[in-house]
Specification:
globular; alpha/beta; Rossmann fold; single chain; two-stranded antiparallel sheet; 12 strands
């Protein structure tokens, strides 16, 4: 029997025209280009990780990079293959010593073999002088050199070099300069997935302070034009919680494909996280995030019906992973390792 498992490239014979015959019979649960979750992030696509200044989103982003490079789960999000990925982390805000401090904290409780796997799959580039079109050129050249599966850039504003509130400027940057590197790699190189770390704007004054944010308001609550949301395949967020030191890690766009569990209290795919505490024998401060609790509820039937798209396989309608690792010494507890 002829296989009906086709890659994205095989579904477009000339790179642009969809083969409707193959599209009619293809196995939509199979995607060789899926990098994270259930087509949460695929090769040739990108997303955003958004948070306010100072909350710790750079630490979170670098922790993501380390976990996925080592083949480890990160708050429910893991590589689709279950294997380590080649990850390139681009940074323009923090210097080398600060990156080293976070790096040492992230791997504090890891085994030597886990650390070696990380070293074999992670590369960090500290670049602060590439803006606009020059960034697109740098991204293409550097990914050609390292040939990564995943690229994380921190932050978007460090490389944009244009008016973030202009849809025209964002379209030019994202869909021309960035997509040229993202979707059209040189011969011999593979497409990669891309995550930009991005800021929220200044706090809004004069609004309804007690009004609870919705999934839509969380999606659009960031600095800049709406084209950012349009371009992004997914959006992750890190928002402060009422309790000091805690935050809500949520995914308002395509959260059902991520692997992150549904949080009924927040009506959101997400979980509470907190700044980790250092190990008793450590003389260093902890510079990483860990689960804050496991108070999660199952996905309500009404919500499941609302997010389910027609003709989408059952396995893609909701997140597969319904359990959040219990709060403990950190992400690297025994239970977390079993799910990694």
């Amino acid at each position: 029997m002829k296989s009906n498992k086709y890659t994205n490239q095989q579904l477009t014979n000339d790179g642009t025209t969809l083969d409707l015959g193959r599209a009619l019979v293809c196995d939509v649960t199979y995607d060789a280009d899926s990098l994270l979750g259930e087509r949460f992030l695929c090769r040739g696509s990108g997303g955003l990780m958004v948070g306010q200044s100072g909350i710790g989103k750079s630490t979170l982003a670098f922790q993501m990079a380390c976990h996925w490079a080592a083949g480890k789960d990160f708050f429910g999000i893991s590589s689709t293959s279950g294997k380590p990925m080649k990850v390139m982390f681009g940074q323009s805000e923090n210097d080398a010593l600060e990156m080293a401090e976070v790096f040492q904290s992230v791997i504090e409780n890891w085994t030597p073999s886990e650390v070696q796997t990380l070293l074999d799959h992670l590369v960090v580039e500290i670049v602060w002088n590439k803006l606009g079109k020059e960034f697109g050129t740098w991204l293409r050249e550097t990914t050609t050199k390292h040939n990564p599966d995943l690229v994380i850039i921190d932050p978007l504003m460090g490389y944009l070099g244009a008016d973030v509130n202009s849809n025209e400027a964002i379209t030019c940057f994202m869909r021309e300069h960035v997509n040229n590197a993202l979707k059209n790699p040189p011969e011999g190189c593979r497409q990669f997935g891309l995550i930009f770390v991005h800021h929220t704007g200044k706090p809004v004054t004069g609004g309804k302070k007690d009004e609870k944010p919705t999934n839509t308001t969380r999606m659009y609550n960031m600095l800049g034009a709406s084209e950012l949301v349009n371009w992004a395949r997914f959006i992750m967020r890190l928002d402060p919680a009422q309790e000091r030191g805690r935050a809500l890690f949520s995914i308002p766009k395509r959260g059902n494909r991520s692997g992150v569990p549904y949080h009924q209290g927040e009506d959101e795919f997400g979980c509470y996280v907190r700044h980790a505490t250092a190990s008793p024998n450590s003389q260093k401060r902890a510079m990483r995030w860990e689960p804050a609790n496991a108070l999660l509820a199952p996905l309500p039937a009404a919500v499941a019906a609302e997010i389910a798209a027609p003709n989408v396989p059952e396995t893609l309608k909701t997140s597969k992973k319904a359990k959040l690792p219990k709060a403990g010494p950190g992400l690297d507890s025994a239970e977390s390792r079993q799910t990694a």
